[in-house]
């Protein structure tokens, strides 16, 4: 079969012929139907500072098949697999829990103490066929397409952020970052009762995409975002909830100024640099609640997301702008640095 293989911790990857995989007792094999490029894939492909820092906590072995956001048809199951059957249409959870540590025992499988990561510590899905532990396979509901299924993993991050934001009817919500996960979050915030959703970015292309989602947009390169948010939230003194998705350390110089007293900050983006925070002024005296997000709750978040997609409350495919064959990977990764939304391999 063909796969996108990274052989060394350096720039690039190769589209090569490798042996077809064989699932072990607790694994499944899928025929990959759709897969999406994530920011993590970009960093892994380029093997930049972010990739190096991110993988310090995980044992990455080469060669490695890249990719982790995908859907496919189950074509073979291991001898001990009972929860998945051949023919099932599935999407994959990236976080691979051990199932026995303290975090797993209390229900926090998404943040397992011995966690593996699909496409990082475990061969990924940028291939004709992919192997995965059966325990991270989510059977997609009737009516969900393979393309939509490939977006369950990234949109699940947005879903988890919205769950932890605890939006109340009438709240004003700030979405800082209009990339694909930000655009998923905008749709979700709107249906969860937010009276006003404000989205900030510096990329005109992504801002224009966001404008189609019933949101107030601010281009931080063209106007002062702090002043703009103050005008929009004059009575409250800031937004009720801010969700940070850029991962840019510089955002934290301003984001605290945009949140009202006793407000809430949900952080999703992973800064590659240390962030300086004035705890007294920005957290304690504001009475600010902060929640960090790493992954999706297994399987609570997935079920919530599935209900929204099946009942057409959100449209995951609105964020897709480009589709490629896997052999066009170089063009696809180049496009991911240009004006684009979500990019799919189909």
What does it look like?
By secondary structure, the chain is of the alpha/beta class. It folds into two domains: 2-150 and 315-345, Alpha-Beta Complex (Quinone Oxidoreductase, Chain A, domain 1); 158-292, Rossmann fold (3-Layer(aba) Sandwich), CATH 3.40.50. Helices cover 25% and strands 26% of the residues. It contains eleven helices and 18 strands. The strands form four sheets. Strands 3, 5, 6, 9, 10, 17 and 18 form a seven-stranded mixed sheet that branches. It has a six-stranded parallel sheet with strand order 13-12-11-14-15-16, sandwiched between helices. Helix 5 (152-165) crosses helix 10. The two termini are 15 Å apart. The model has no long low-confidence stretch (mean pLDDT 97).
Q: Could you outline the blueprint of secondary structure elements for this entry?
A:
Elements (H helix, E strand, L loop, with lengths): L1 E5 L7 E4 L9 E10 L2 H8 L2 H6 L9 E2 L3 E9 L11 E4 L2 E2 L5 H4 L10 E2 L11 E5 L3 E3 L6 H5 L1 H14 L6 E5 L3 H12 L4 E6 L2 H7 L5 E4 L5 H8 L6 E6 L14 E9 L11 H6 L4 E4 L7 H11 L9 E5 L4 H7 L6 E4 L1
Parallel strand pairs: 11-12, 11-14, 12-13, 14-15, 15-16, 17-18
Antiparallel strand pairs: 1-2, 1-4, 3-5, 3-9, 3-18, 5-6, 6-10, 7-8
Helix pairs in contact: 5-6, 5-10
What is shown here, in short?
The chain is built from eleven helices and 18 strands.
